[in-house]
Amino acid sequence: MNVKIDTKEKFSVVSPQDSNITVNMAAELEDVLLKFQTQSIPHLIINMQAVKAMDNEVSQMLANLQQSFYEKNLSCIVCCLNADVENKLEELELLEFMNVTPTESEAWDIMHMEEVERELLDDENF
């Protein structure tokens, strides 16, 4: 699986470069993405701009992966979905459970808002 990784100050952007992500690629992609949960910069944006199609199992894996980030109080945002991929997520009734933005810039904004929210919640716990 071919991915591009761009590490920023507070998050990383992972961009799959394959136009079709098949079930055979799902485990490899999941391994790449899960590793961010244990890195010093664990927050993640998944830019899906190059992806034109993906198998149902990959769609489910992305939804589950995103949930696992949020359960660990980490951000994970998917952005730049192709219309066909977005429609597939909608058909599978996964889109409503996912944090998806139309552009990477909007994903950055959500990432920063979630960071502020975590800081505020941490302050309330003291």
Offer a quick outline of the entry.
The chain has 126 residues and is an alpha/beta fold.
What's the overall average pLDDT, rounded?
94
Largest sheet: 5 strands, mixed
Order of helices and strands: EEEHEEHEHEH
Provide the CATH architecture: 2-Layer Sandwich
Supply the CATH class: Alpha Beta
Question: Kindly, what is the distance between the CA atoms of the first and last residues, rounded to a whole number of angstroms?
Answer: 44 Å
Please tell me what the overall shape is: globular
Integer tally of domains: 1
- Helical amount: 40-55%
Strand content: 15-25%
Task: Give the number of DSSP strands.
Answer: 7
Number of helices, counting only DSSP H or I runs of 4 residues or more = 4
Low-confidence spans: none
What's the name of the CATH homologous superfamily? Answer: STAS domain
Sheet with the most strands: spatial strand order:
1-2-4-6-7
- As for the CATH topology, it is Transcription Regulator spoIIAA
Rg:
14 Å
Instruction: Look at the helices and sheets and give the structural class.
Output: alpha/beta
Describe the structure.
This protein is of the alpha/beta class and 126 residues long. It has a single domain, classed as 2-Layer Sandwich (Transcription Regulator spoIIAA), CATH 3.30.750. Helices cover 46% and strands 19% of the residues. The strands form two sheets. The protein has a five-stranded mixed β-sheet. The protein has a two-stranded parallel sheet with strand order 3-5. Strand 1 and strand 2 form a beta hairpin. Helix 1 packs parallel to helix 2. It is globular, with a radius of gyration of 14 Å. The relative contact order is 0.16.
